TrEMBL record:
The lineage of its organism: Bacteria, Pseudomonadati, Bacteroidota, Bacteroidia, Bacteroidales. This is O-antigen ligase domain-containing protein. Keywords: Membrane, Transmembrane, Transmembrane helix. The chain crosses the membrane at residues 16-36, 48-69, 104-130, 142-165, 172-189, 195-213, 225-248, 308-331, 343-361. It comes from Duncaniella dubosii.
Length: 398
């Protein structure tokens, strides 16, 4: 499961460094094959079933039905939907004791370090900037390195590092280093949403586990001062300082661009505004009562806005399922007492990216939209069922 969480990014880097032979597909398929309890699956037993898993599975099936009825078969999206279905079946074939959630976090953290090493290398050698220039020179070049995938993976890594801040001395020190490296890489990439969510996650972690109202943690203060010192040092380096200031400015301007349809940060924000305006006009002029309930059909138009996409394509039903399970449910658990358990906080924080990007990035049908929620539900079930109790108890903060 840990490889599934970071497999897409790891496969992308392997395609870039070791030949574009579909390493991402190999890794994801391999992890999918390792996931099920084959003895239960061969006997058609699915002991690990709950309402959320049933709903997620049903949503994927309905999406495929919508796609087939509409007659527009998108191979990529079909692959993502089938992957989520088979992943869910693999998970449900397990008994609660088959999967150790802390080990899932550990392997996500371990594989995340490999991805960070690859990402740092692409930055240090200039390979990323060469790819970026070729991608935007108008020649139609398709780069293997996708900046949004890189940024999303860095965010996942930062969340895993937060989980290990209170661990053994080695893991704790490596995690502090990892968070600093991750934030620096995020600034260099210039992806505003992942950077903002990373900062929010760190602040939320500090409020949960190092609240000012409790005993002041000297180690936490020391780490904070060290972090601030490094940031100040980096800001004195002109190139990094300029990049950082540009990211902040573009983050503010980007919000205005999406609201007003201006293009001060480039064409992307203006295109999102145009697509959103098209969707609202289409809904107002062409939706019938049937469409309001069931939508206009699978991928009526690509909107780069998951919530709006779910409503346009699948109506109130699709919107409600996506909104509740991808946004509301993780937020409820985040602000519940359960999130004072460090492993539950880790599961909640993995969902922050999908929550904050629900209005401005991606589609609601890829496996990446559902994996964080599935991991969170697995974590909650492990606590309630008492499985992995010894491992989880070690990570508990009251």
């Amino acid at each position: 499961m840990g490889l599934i969480i970071v497999g897409a990014a790891l496969g992308m880097y392997m395609n870039f460094y070791f030949g574009n032979i579909g390493w991402n597909n190999v890794l994801m398929l391999g992890s999918l094959m390792l996931l099920p309890n084959w003895r239960n699956l061969s006997c058609f037993r699915l002991p690990f079933v709950n309402r959320t898993f049933k709903t997620i599975l049903l949503f994927q099936v309905i999406c495929i039905v919508y796609m087939v009825i509409g007659g527009l078969i998108d191979i990529s999206l079909m692959t993502y939907l089938l992957f989520t279905i088979f992943m869910m079946i693999g998970i449900m074939s397990q008994t609660p004791s088959d999967m150790s959630i802390p080990k899932v976090a550990f392997y996500s953290w371990l594989f995340g370090w490999i991805c960070i090493a690859f990402c740092t290398t692409t930055m240090a050698t200039g390979a990323f900037f060469i790819e970026y220039a070729r991608l935007h020179d108008g020649s139609g070049y398709q780069s293997i390195l996708i900046d949004l995938t890189m940024a999303g993976n860095i965010y996942t890594f930062i969340v895993c590092c937060l989980y290990y801040l209170k661990s053994s001395k080695t893991k704790s020190n490596l995690s502090i280093l990892g968070i600093i490296i991750g934030l620096i890489l995020m600034v260099i990439l210039g992806k505003r949403t992942p950077l903002l969510i990373s900062i929010i996650s760190i602040c939320f972690y500090l409020s949960r586990f190092h609240p000012i109202s409790r005993t002041v943690n000297k180690k936490a203060i020391g780490y904070s001062l060290l972090f601030l010192g490094l940031i100040v040092l980096l800001l004195k380096i002109s190139d990094f300082g300029e990049i950082f200031i540009t990211v902040i400015k573009r983050s503010i301007d980007g919000v205005f661009d999406m609201i007003h349809g201006t293009s001060s940060t480039g064409a992307a924000a203006m295109e999102r505004y145009r697509l959103r305006d098209w969707a609202f006009t289409y809904i107002e002029n062409k939706f019938t009562p049937f469409n309001y309930l069931f939508g206009a059909g699978f991928m009526t138009k690509w909107l780069d806005a998951p919530l709006l996409q779910a409503y346009l394509d699948m109506g109130i039903i699709g919107f409600s399922v996506y909104f509740y399970y991808v946004i509301v449910k993780p937020l409820k658990l985040t602000f519940s007492r359960l999130s004072r358990n460090r492993i539950v906080f880790w599961g909640c924080a993995l969902n922050f990216y999908n929550i904050f990007s629900a209005l401005n990035s991606g589609v609601p049908y890829t496996h990446l939209r559902w994996i964080p929620l599935i991991v969170l539900i697995l974590t909650i079930n492990s606590l309630r069922d008492g499985s992995n109790r010894t491992e989880i108890k070690l990570c508990y903060e009251s």
